[in-house]
Amino acid sequence: MDAKQVHVALAIPHLWGGGAERTTLRIARGLLERGHRVDLVVFRDGPVGGIELPEGARYFVLRPERRGWLQDRRLMVRAFGLRAAFCMSGTLVGQSRGFAKYLDRENPDCVVPSLPKMKVAAFIAGYLSSRDQSIVPVVHSNLSNRPRKYLYLYSIMFPSSEKIIAVSDGVSGDLISRLGLKKGLVERIYNPVVSNCIEALADEEAGHPWLHDGGPPIVLAAGRLSRVKDFPTLLKAFAEAARTRSMRLIVLGDGRWRRRLEKRARKLGVADRVCFNGWVDNPFPFMRRASVFVLSSRYEGFGNVLVEALACGCPCISTDCPHGPAEILENGRIGPLVRVGDATALAREICHALDSPPDKAILRNRGRTFDVDDAIERYERLILGVVRERQARRMADDLMKAN
């Protein structure tokens, strides 16, 4: 690999602890360790969950640059068309102007935006900027779960990318089919999840009494407490399974649905056996000590928590949701897959995993195939290739002008 240093801007709306945010910070750290310059560009400042800001990364909070509403609308119509312009809020265009100001001042070689608003803002900023950067968007979820406006904006903007990164084969296929993109434009790179320090992290004190009291086995789940994670189905499945044998459920994560889920647990009669533990910076001690990990999502893009649990040797069960879990669990070979929303099937698989746990070595080996270093290597290779290609085109254009 060419050791030439490149300047990369990793852009995401904020760094408040979700899977995409943790992935962005791991990529930043990996690129910095390989000698590249890295900027972290966000819309909103705030606490960083789970991972410290990498040493050496520069941190930029974009400030909106507002102009007249009509002036902005006319400019967006000229750039992207009438329908696209009216899919863009004034706030997003203002943030994009702030992004363009950053591009003009800092001039990174490559911009890697994640999550819908930041991806759209990056393309608008690229249009508004006087500089010429490569934009390589990262797509973390299938498009059917995004508002229609993003599907339309992506269809206009994504074809101008040199490359698009999809976090799973399922997301890649969805992108290609829905947007009519060329296959060579989209590259699948699994998220960087498992690092060498996972053993040390898993050995740390979990700080939860259920993990040390010798009581009934622990069913573990983790994720944002929101509709997409479908914790109501998990609670129903747990209540069904708990009728046949003793067990307890710990849910890691926070969100707007917390009170609703606590009420649901009381209604099902399992509130004394369910703990909504909230956000934890280090979930690995829970995963090492739990008897089974359950992902009940309606959809995913990849499923970082499944990989983390596998790497800790924890048996995993997941819904067969689009996309990611089936790839991680090798279509059920590593862990069972059940239909989305099927609480009875989920309860049955929980009991089976408790009665007949799989070989932990097989689980750990599968989890560790999603290695941080391998993912960073692929990100670096892709970014260097895109930057070199653009530089070659610039040189060719300059030669043509000179002649």
Q: Which key phrases capture this entry?
A:
403 residues; alpha/beta; Rossmann fold; 2 domains; 6-stranded parallel beta sheet; 5-stranded parallel beta sheet; 16 helices; 14 strands; 45% helix; 13% strand
Outline:
By secondary structure, the chain is of the alpha/beta class. The chain is built from 16 helices and 14 strands.
Characterization of this structure:
This protein has 403 residues and is α/β, with parallel strands linked by helices. The chain folds into 2 domains: 218 residues, Glycogen Phosphorylase B (Rossmann fold, 3-Layer(aba) Sandwich); 170 residues, Rossmann fold (3-Layer(aba) Sandwich). Helix content is 45%, strand content 13%. It is built from 16 helices and 14 strands. The strands form 3 sheets. The protein has a 6-stranded parallel beta sheet, with helices on both faces. Strands 3-2-1-4-5 form a 5-stranded parallel beta sheet, sandwiched between helices. The chain has a 3-stranded parallel beta sheet with strand order 6-7-8, with helices on one face. α12 links the parallel β12 and β13. The radius of gyration is 23 Å and the shape is elongated. The mean pLDDT is 93.
Lay out the secondary structure.
Blueprint: E1 7-11, H1 19-33, E2 37-42, E3 58-61, H2 69-80, H3 82-85, H4 90-106, E4 110-113, H5 116-128, E5 134-135, E6 138-139, H6 148-157, E7 164-166, H7 169-179, E8 186-188, H8 198-202, E9 218-222, H9 231-242, E10 248-252, H10 258-268, E11 274-278, H11 284-289, E12 292-295, H12 304-311, E13 316-319, H13 325-328, E14 337-338, H14 343-355, H15 360-367, H16 372-402
Parallel strand pairs: 1-2, 1-4, 2-3, 4-5, 6-7, 7-8, 9-10, 9-12, 10-11, 12-13, 13-14
